[in-house]
Design brief:
about 70% strand
Length: about 220
């Protein structure tokens, strides 16, 4: 992907991450992720390729498990700089009131590398919240630097979410962490995150969280 094109796409998203929101209350949380991905079609030298993937996300507050999200779908890399994905997600709210929700999601993912170490990515996500009957657009920008150690990468990201039924940005996230490649198959990803929301609320509230992701790729 030409550098100018990548910057043209990514720069507007970066500006939106500066959204002037000021959460008035913040709480703490721990989030655990387990990712698994397996190749169905793999090109030897260049795309396209196709893989199936799944993810389970668990969120813990001080009083225990509160939320579990399970996703499964397919991802296709059609160009070195372009990937497409589609998946289904099931959300289980454990506390304070048990309930289940369903989502259908499509992703358009852009990526560009500057030399060997630095990479930029933009994920555009289109969510249909089936249970609650509303549409959400999510835009995430990620910067990643692969260190000279090769198995270690440092990254940061920002994301905003627009809810169609409210006609405004209702959530945003800021994350920073490292990725450790334990082997060709396993990776470990500890990170810090901050999430702010005002969906269904008169003002912004924020959540600080520590996350840990274990990824398996075949």
């Amino acid at each position: 992907m030409p550098r100018k094109r990548a910057l043209t796409v990514i720069a507007p998203a970066l500006l939106l991450f500066l959204w002037p929101a000021r959460p008035v209350r913040a709480t703490g949380q721990v989030r655990m992720y387990f990712d698994v991905q397996g190749s169905v079609l793999r090109a030897k030298k260049s795309p396209p390729d196709l893989s199936l993937f799944g993810r389970e996300e668990s969120r813990f507050w001080s009083d225990g498990l509160e939320y579990v999200k399970t996703s499964a779908g397919a991802r296709a890399r059609v160009r070195a700089w372009l990937s497409l994905a589609a998946y289904y997600a099931h959300q289980d709210y454990v506390s304070p009131e048990p309930k289940a929700k369903h989502m259908a999601v499509a992703d358009v993912i852009l990526a560009h590398r500057f030399g060997r170490g630095l990479g930029l990515g933009q994920r555009n996500e289109f969510e249909w919240h089936v249970t609650d009957a509303y549409f959400r657009y999510r835009c995430q920008l990620t910067a990643r630097w692969t260190t000279p150690l090769r198995r270690l990468a440092i990254w940061g990201s920002g994301e905003f979410r627009v809810d169609a039924d409210a006609g405004r940005v209702n959530m945003y996230n800021l994350l920073a962490g490292i990725t450790i490649r334990l082997s060709k198959i396993f990776r470990l990803q500890p990170f810090y995150g901050y999430e702010a929301t005002r969906r269904g609320k008169p003002s912004w509230t924020g959540t600080h969280y520590l996350g840990l992701l274990l990824g398996v790729r075949g």
